[in-house]
């Protein structure tokens, strides 16, 4: 049985298939793999550890002379994602009805979902279609985790004052450190670089499965059609914007499109905003389920959108193997 070859025939298969398989298990038999010890540690709770190891292996492939390129790409991803999401949120506020909603969407849900991105999904997609420098760009993109950038957008709009304590510099360092450790090892010893290179691709299906164990298709039902619409907007608006920004800068456009998702941690953002300002409390519950639905929708839809873009680019002669091996 040629499992690897079968997965590789599916665009993004090494990430998409394990993720959807795990999400199906988590939805219909959530306790099947939650039996403790090594099984649960690897298949359910292992995403963060496996992604950290992936980032270390990736960091080892980066020549210190080219790290500035990664920083530039990460800053571009972060700025594009935030700007597009903030503008979408502003439009939602401007055209909200008397009930404070825009087409049934809570404006804080729009900002929370569209300024945040699923780092694990980004790493998986870029690990399959991007270069070593592209993968390292995640160290800056990780800044959009949590409610901090949503708060910044709201403060700019004058909706609320700036809220301190919503961003932890320590958390940012904790994301960056595995990449730095990998860079140090790889630049000190070429044999270590070669040894760790194997982990860059081998780990993808494993952390994709663990990510899928955090997805419940029921969130789409609870969030309703509006949450699904929010997920579509996140993928096609922020993802497409990233695609064209990177294309304009003559970088791999797929890397730009790969940030078009909503992370699971964004589900907590509406509650955090409501805790900081009581004026948002009436929308917190609705916004929470809409962001949850967006998280699930983007986890399914973004890989399919990336696959479409990859096929389109390959027809025009783009060679992704050169990117991955660069």
UniProtKB/TrEMBL annotation:
The keyword Cell membrane applies. GO terms for cellular component: membrane. GO terms for molecular function: 2-keto-3-deoxygluconate:proton symporter activity. It comes from the Bacteria. Keywords: Cell membrane, Membrane, Sugar transport, Symport, Transmembrane, Transmembrane helix, Transport. The chain crosses the membrane at residues 12-29, 41-62, 74-95, 101-126, 138-163, 169-188, 200-221, 227-246, 290-310. Pfam families: KdgT. InterPro entries: 2keto-3dGluconate_permease. Belongs to the KdgT transporter family. This is 2-keto-3-deoxygluconate permease. It comes from Bacillus infantis.
